[in-house]
Amino acid sequence: MKTFDFEQFVQALSNPDLKGRVAGTKTHEKAKDLIVEELGNLESRGWQKLIPDTWEQPYSVYSSSLLKTIKCANLIAVHQGKPGVTDWILIGAHYDHLYECPGANDNAASVGIVLEAMHKLADTAHDCNVIAVFFDTEEPPFFDENKMGSQHFYHHLPEGLLIEHLRCAIVLDLVGHEVKLKQREQSLFVVGVDSGLDFVQVVNEASASTNLDIYKALRGIDYSDHLEFNRNHKPHLFLTAGVPWHYHSPHDTYDKLSNNLPKLHQISELVYNLCCIMRPISEATRGPSFTLADEHAELKRFLNAEHDQHVAQRIKYIESEVSIIGYRALHAVAALLKSIYISTFESLASDLDDEKKLRYALSILMKANTYLE
What we know:
alpha/beta; Aminopeptidase; globular
């Protein structure tokens, strides 16, 4: 039985020779083959093809970058639960990326985490089916269009999957980097805890055995493959560490992950725990609620970290970029960061009580990580 070498796989998937795993290119096909090879190894451990005779869910879209219609494929595997069960949990991550960008953090690390979790789940009996999906065409020019692989999956569910039997879609994106705030390096945001009856409690239980610094957030931060699940008010959890400075650039290389490998393995443990703890739909009961005020408290807890002049300078830079970046909540985040970090901006403290602004603050804080390096 071949064991899964996480580091070797992520290095291979983010190899610069693959030129970014751009959908519709030969190097994208090579990246797909790397995942298919690992799925073949998992077949001997109980993972099966959900679609008869193939791991692929094929579809075609027009690429405005390549100026042609391209063939694409989500890769899907299933680990069957007890006989007769119809509930299912999805664990997923996209595997495509952008030209000449290695994409180690975006999103080779997440693909590796899902595969590692699949190996752990292979040794566990489940009371539901676990579906692993590696989504295609998440990146521009496909994002937020019906050309996304995750949207194709949602609207063309393979036979046997009923959306009303979905316990949770667990989606990972941009999880591999350290958050560049002192004492917050191991942070992980879990978005969508209000999309399930008992998800607050489930996340608390699943993370208890890890060393991760978990920050929960409401549904609605939609920059990855959970987008369609959120739009349709289906249960989902989005795991992310935000946007690092090397986002969508040639600098998103494996070496920037190498010092953070323990965190990645901890996230794999979290995914495994979530799958094991997630309760049957028929048995789920209303757990602790999670409101705007709770998200507000989580955001303040996250920001209550040590800071130095370097961070202060970056915060100033964030504010100067407001008109360029154009994010609607960046004003609020800049004010929030200032009011917490820099006492001379006490006049802006009133923003801390404006929950309408703060509702968007976490989303933009993730973007703001780009400027906190």
